[in-house]
Amino acid sequence: MQFVFFVFGNTIAYVNVKNHYLKLPPVFDFENAVCGHGWYDLPPFSFDADGRKLRYTFSIAEKRAATITIQPSKDRLKVAAPEELRRDVAASTVSRILRLDEGLDEFYALAGGDPGLAWAAGRGAGRLLRSATVFEDLIKTICTTNCSWSLTRKMVANLTESLGAECSAGNRAFPTAEAMAAESPDFYRNEIRAGYRSDYLAEVAEGVASGRIEPESWLASDLPTPELKRELLKVKGIGTYAAEHLLKLLGRYDGLALDSWLRARYAAKHNRNRPTTDKKIASHYKKYGKWQGLALWCDMTADWFSEKS
DNA sequence: GCGTCCAGGTCTACC
DNA sequence: GGTAGACCTGGACGC
For A13-26, how does the pLDDT look when each residue is reduced to its tens digit (9 = 90+)? Predict the structure, then answer.
């Protein structure tokens, strides 16, 4: 056991910390798993690239939260967690956010036959970081729609700071559905700066808190992806892009989750910077079948991986 | 500093 | 089923 101290303003908090070690999948790259898409940049995640540490705070009970710090240690992951946090809870949370149990062999085999994507398997690409709950990913996804990344970051930070449970070290978790459901649309408009999304946030939170919407059930759903997508589209504020983005975080990559950034990126890489139709983009990745969304994402972010290598 | 314009994805009304 | 316009914010730009 060790003590770790955190500094908040003029206050120093000491926390009893215990280390756990987790086995890694055969193909795994810590930086690529963390930085494979933008989630690591949103609270309650924080990433120290130089120290190679991913920190995440999540709710463990009503109004209580815990912060874990994850870092690579040879062929394992070292997870520093508060002593009070059960080992299985820490392990399952890390496994879930870094998708340690997800098998990407089939995708890597397909990518291996494509000169443009053959690099993906060797670098453990495609392991998209996700949150501890589907609800958190759902709300964050709504916050990515129709705005700049800086605004997304601001909305998510405001939500976490305003409504998230605080852990003993002072960090805050993403708020629960119940905490969010207790607030009005005006709160989301005026305090969170969510604009017209405020009604969606309030409605979704109320739906989840009341049990009318069950995001967690989507993770283990037996529904075929098109049917599950229809379920997601019933949620106010979730359109085609958002539904397909969420499906990726649920481990289903049939959809491309095209947004303006991806369209522009595709045009630059494959169409001499000229705009193209979504149909043409879909046709380009059709050979990847149920992995096409992941193939598109890896193709469009290939230089992120090469920059880090 | 102020005003204007624009990008961004979803919803709703309308055809 | 397809399309136009509204929604709201922050950033860029011109004055």
Answer: 566 889 999 999 98
